[in-house]
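Entry 12.
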Amino acid sequence: MIDFIINLIVTAAVILIMSYAMSSVHVKSFGTALWVAFLTAIFTATIGWILGGLLNLVTFFLLEAIVGLIVTALMLKLVDKLVGNFKLDGFLPALIIAIAVAIALAIVGWLRGEGRDDYALIKPGDKIEVVRTIV
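Predicted 3D structure (tokens):
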């Protein structure tokens, strides 16, 4: 649950920063950005999951990351139609926000230590055993 809240806050912050950086992104407040982040997460988990599965079948799962970015951008455009205080002028700003959010979430995940396999690291002073099998 705490991971979801952190991801929502980071996503909302990125959306708000992108509204200051790009003239084609309009967000009224941080509360609106937080609501947009929440709706985007819900839609991506439901509608986006189905859409992403269909697009991945077409690309034979070779472009899964790109498909994920496109699905997120499409969900941002869907939220654009539903939230009055949030406006995206075109698909390109949605795609840029999706890329920025993906990068920000990857950095936050790395800083929090997610994805690190500590059991696979060899530290100085560790004993290494070599096991030989005879066939």
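Annotation: The mean pLDDT is 87. The CA atoms of residues 28 and 85 lie 6 Å apart.
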